Amino acid sequence: METEILKAFKIYKRIVFTADTDLSFWKSFLERAIDEYCIKNPNNIELFTSVFCAYNFNLDKNEGYLKSSDNIRLIEKNNLKKCGDDFFSSISLLLILKNYVAIETFILQAIHIKYFYLQGSLLGNRKAASRINNEIKAYLKEINIKSDNKNNRHIIEFLKSKSTSISSFLSSKIRVDLDTSWGNFFEIISILRNIIAHQDQVVTSDTINEIKSKGKILFKNHFITKKKEVDKANFTLNIKNTSNFLAFFNDFSLNIVKLMFEEKDLKFLGMN
């Protein structure tokens, strides 16, 4: 079992560590590069222009003509910093999505090894992941616990039913100065996953209130909302606190797996 969980951890680590490191380096490097560029070039100049376009294909004549909209995206020296911040905010949101999938896969892989042992990895294997999810739901039904698929709550309920230590961990605060438990943190990132993947970063006031009910200070410190319509807003990640927020992902997943395997320390995963 140890060999298999270490393999699963190696896959998780490769996915999240490479992306987190690249984001931190390039954000820091480009911020300095932009500052130096602006000092050397005090006057405003146009740096890049693009238009939205697509080919209009005529199947009868087997030909196509390039069509474009009137919208033009202009990047110039005076808005270079803002464009850079917008870029890294978008990348950070995609990284939340990527890291969430990595957490979900890692935890399901650990459940698969610990409780429903089968050979092979779940990575890229949707049928295997579905099979483990079905096993989890069947187990919850056997012990008369309602299986709620929303935000992967069935996974959390399964883990709580299997371990009092995990249950205690999920009830504890992620940091002493924050009002969010680890259980609510997983609920929050599950909600964020849906917003990023399916709602184009647009949230309703009800969704914002739902997130705040699970972690008001966490949301305030790490996210920015801008009103779009009467009952809707765009949300972005506060890029100043991106690394801090993403660090919670590792804390959550590694400690859950540690407790799942009844270990006292992360050394069993090679963390010294």
Q: Can you offer a commentary on this structure?
A:
There is one protein chain. The protein has helices at residues 2-40, 80-114, 126-142, 153-162, 164-171, 182-198, 205-222, 242-260; strands at residues 46-58, 63-76, 202-204, 223-227, 232-237. It has 272 residues and is of the alpha+beta class. The strands form two sheets. It has a three-stranded antiparallel sheet with strand order 3-5-4. The longest helix has 39 residues, at 2-40. It has one domain. The radius of gyration is 22 Å and the shape is globular. The protein has eight helices and five strands; from the N terminus they run αββαααααβαββα.
Write the layout of secondary structure elements.
Elements: H1 2-40, E1 46-58, E2 63-76, H2 80-114, H3 126-142, H4 153-162, H5 164-171, H6 182-198, E3 202-204, H7 205-222, E4 223-227, E5 232-237, H8 242-260
Antiparallel strand pairs: 1-2, 3-5, 4-5
Helix pairs in contact: 1-2, 2-6, 2-8, 3-4, 4-5, 6-7
